[in-house]
Design brief:
elongated; mainly alpha; about 0% strand; about 85% helix; about 140 residues
Length: about 140
Amino acid sequence: MKKQLALLLLLVTSLTLAGCKKDEEVNATLAEFDSFTTEMVKRVESAPNPSTGLDEAQTFFDSKKADITAKMETLKSLRGYQVGDETKQKMMTSLVADATKVGNLEIEYINLSVSNPAFKAKLDKLVKDYQTLFGQ
């Protein structure tokens, strides 16, 4: 009985530690996702012409889409017991901040979107493509 109890305790401890090992993986993925988002937004905001910047951002997004989608799927497949509470909170905060960065492009370029339907279509596509990373 003592051996079984000790074995059970060892198993529970191992599972707990194995679950927490995902924290480092999640933190690395979040840092990569944040870097991807920041770079994409920067391509729009730093371009001399916002329309050209959107083209560059869309090309960048398309080139990284498969890798970023796979990383998001990994995050979405995590179960609560696989990461610590601090990591769960960081994940939520980080992903919301990244989504906000992209969403703010619509606010920043509202005047241009209203006056230029082609620009609006490009911006809508980029934002929609980005949002698909979070859904489905």
